[in-house]
Each structure stands twice: as C-alpha cells, then as structure tokens.
Description:
Blueprint: H1 2-32, H2 40-45, H3 52-63, H4 66-79, H5 85-108, H6 113-120, H7 123-157, H8 159-163, H9 168-189, H10 192-222, H11 227-237, H12 260-270, H13 273-280, H14 285-300, H15 302-306, H16 308-317, H17 328-336, H18 339-377, H19 383-404, H20 414-438, H21 444-463, E1 467-470, E2 476-479, H22 488-509, H23 532-549
Amino acid sequence: MAFCYIVQAMNNTILFFLVFTGLVGLITWYLTRKDDHQSSEGYFLGGRSLTFPIIAGSLLLTNLSTEQLVGLNGAAYAGGLHVMVWEVVAVITLVVMALYFLPRFLRSGIATIPQYLGERFDRQTRLIVDMIFLVAYAVILLPIILYTGAKGLSSMLDVGGLTGIQNDTLVLWLMVVIIATLGSIYAILGGLRTVAVSDTLNGVGLLLGGFLIAYFGLQAVSEDQGVFSGLTILHQAAPERFNSIGSADQSVPFPTIFSGVMLLNLFYWCTNQQIIQRTFAARSLEEGQKGVLLTAGFKLLGPIYLVIPGMIAYHLYSSDPTFRSVDAYGTLVRDVLPAPLTGFFAAAMVGAILSSFNSALNSTSTIFSLGLYGNEINKNAKEEKIVRSGKWFALVIAVCSVAIAPLLDGQGQIFDYLQKMNGIYFVPLFAVVVMGMLFKRLPPLGAKVGLLTGFTIIPFGYFVPVAKQINDNGEVVSQFVSGDLVNDFHFLGIAFLLITCGMLLVNKLKPLESDFIQKEANAVNMTPWKHGKIIGVLLFAMVILIYALFADFSIL
C-alpha cells in the first residue's frame, strides 16, 4: 500500500512537471514564433524590442537559478540570516545600474561589454575582455549552473529512487547531461527574446513556488500551527541565526559589505554580460530603467525564498551529522510540498536552470560571434553566418561545461566557491569599465595595466602560499593572503584599490591628448524615466530598514 502511494505521488509529480513545462514552451513558441532569428540584432538582442516586464522577468530568472536556490539556501543552512546580504545589497547595485550605467551603455548602442570597452579604449582591450568572458563562462559559470541544477533536481525528484540508480555520482552525471542537452537545444534554436519571454513565464511560477516552500516549511516547523508560529519556533531555537550582521568568523562578515561584496554585486548587476544583455535589448531607456528597478523591488523579497527555506532546513535536518548543506533545499522541497506542487515547482526550477544556462550560453555565443568571429576571424561574414557561428560555438562550450560540472562535487559551500572564483575576473573587469567612464583621458594602456594587475594579484592571493603556520595538531600548513591573512572579500577590495591605483598612475603619466567622447548610436529613445530617481531613493531606504530590523551589532 505504501509503495503504491509513493508511486502514485511520484506519477503526480512527473505529470504536473510535464504539464507546466509543456505549457511554458507552448506559450513561448506562440509569442515568439514570428521573431527574427536570422540577423545578429534579432537573434542576440531581440530586435531591441523588450519592454520592462519582460526585462524584469528575464533579469530575475537569469539570476534566480539553482546556484541561488540551492547555493544561497545552503549558505543559510550553514550560517543563518546574514547571507541575505547577496539579495539585499543587490538592490543598491541595481539602482546604480538603472541610473548610471544603463544610460551610458544604451547611448553606444552596444551588444556586449567587450564591444563597449573596444569603443572606449581599443581593439586589443576588446579582444582581451572577449577571451576573459569566454573562458570564465565556460570554466566557472556554466559548470556551476549545471552542477547546482543537477543536485537540486536529483534531491527534489528523488531521481535515484525513481530510476533505481544507487550511485550518486552516476545520478549527478545523468542530470548534468540532461540539463545541458535541453538547455543547449533551447539556447541554440531560440534567440534572446525567446529566452526572455520563457524567463518571465517561469519566473512567475518560480516566485510562487518559492513563497509556497517558505509557507509549507514554516507550517512543518510549527506542526500546522501557522506561519508566524513557525517563525517564532525558528527564532526561539536559534536566535543567533536571525542576525543580519555577519560576525568575523562567518562567511560574510558585516564590514565586507563595503569592500568585496559590494564590488562583486556591482560587476554582476552592472557589467556582467550574462545579466545585462537583456537591458541592451530594451525598447527605450525608460523601459530599461523600469525593468531594472522592478527587478530591484523583487530582490527585496529575496530572503523569503532564498534564505528562510535554508534556515527551516537547518531546524529540521541539522541533527543528522551526515546531512550536507548543498542538499538542504531539494530535500526540503521534496518533504514539505504536496506532490502536485512539487511537480509544478520542479518544472519552474527546470525553467530557472535552463534560463541561467541559456542566458550564459547565449551571452557566450554573442561575445564570440560579434567579437571574435565577426571582427577577427571573418570580417566579411554575412549576418546568417555570424549567427550560425554563435550556435556552433555554444554547442562546443556546452560540451566543455558538461565535462567540468561533476568535478565540483568535492566543493563544500558551492555559493561561497562561486563568489570566490567570480572575484578573479569580476573585480578587474569592473575596475576597467568604471575607470573608463570616470576618467575621460585614461588611455588604452591604463585598461591593459588594470587587467594585468588584477589577473596577477587576485590568483596570487588565492593560490600562492606566502607563509607557514603550525596548527593545533602540530602540523605545518600553508597560509594564503586571501582567506588566511585577509578575509576573501576584503582582499578583493584591496585588489580593486591596487588595480585602480595602477590605472590612475598611467592616466597621470600618459593621458590621452583629449577627452574621450562617447558616440551617439541613436539605437533607442534615450529619454529617462521621470520617476527613476525617486524610486531609487525609496529602494535604498528599504535596504537600510531591512538591515536595521534584524541587526545585532554586539557580535562585532
């Protein structure tokens, strides 16, 4: 009888999964069936036709994938509420993106960040940044998306039990291959607008599902006595875990917000090709700003579905010493959601995985096609050939990502690992972009010095031992600048200062003869949203309020 019930529940889960996935696919096809997928602007920028709801939905879901759902909830399982910093601080950086960076990008009519740097500096700078993005996405971003997606889905759907495969490694490989195959087909056949529309549809389901998980999880904690009772029990059981202020021994100490954490957020939301490509496709500056600021509003709600479930999982599962934080989210979803809702949420989660994978793959192919192929390999290529080159390159990168993803299973806190690896290229690239905007006479040599400095200092601090220490067991262990001698995020802040100092020195010694003047591409209407600044101030105030409500500075 019990076995039959489990089979029936699993069948319901799979049925709802297939129905919701099919419905999203059908609606997306209907809405984008007449789109231009042959020209580079149509395929890579959606014909510059995106409105603010589509921009916001796509931005949110591209960000809200399993590296967030699984990774950040896993971090909350391990450390508590303070990890909400990644969601809340994002609100500030999105305001900066809407009001400062976006007008400058849209004015140039660019499709990629390397293209912008090529216009600001020179061809060599563009080529260097093209290669940095391509390698980083292939080696860091895409494999992590696949790995966290595979881990989350295998736990949620109990793939091992469903298939009878008892080997966890084999299950992981199977899920990685399936996700990569589906995502590659989706990314290659559709263009940016197809991705953006499906993102928005899946985003509705994912947000609804995320709130439901928090609701049912709190109900489980309180034994159906209500959400607020569940929150009270969580707080009474471990009040120290409800502090928005991270202590020195936690993953994100509070002072690091003003150094590396802010830098990583600024790059991610303001200059990361995977994220901001859909803002380049905005119908106008006003639509772009509305979309970015709407995303900021949604990020204020992020702790509810990206932090609270991890804390619930800690309350329910932490008594098991073998339980891993990376399994917290998927296990909680499987345990607290009714079978039909599990299928619905699994479908939305697949959409989120595919969204992030599609977006990164689409951005990778955009950078290759419009950067390397169209400008270097085949300068006389027709539009159709440029698009085709991007599709083939996307396929190659997808295969490389599949090979790397399962190797990440040995990492502990996958979200912390992601942020650390991102720092290698986030900080130097952001420094070059922002310094190019602020200093009109900064020469191309300054950009190259900044990149060289960053890609020397940061890997050295991460991976080269600089001292020895005797541990409690009498063993000699190596020490590194980052992590051992200096907090990882403070180290990134120091690296940023050194990078900018090097660029300022070049600016002082060998400046351009005249100010750089940005060209007006007239690609879209550049009238800003009249309420943009007011909304930005309100969002900033909400960030301060949220932190103040849960702050206990006594731990510092």
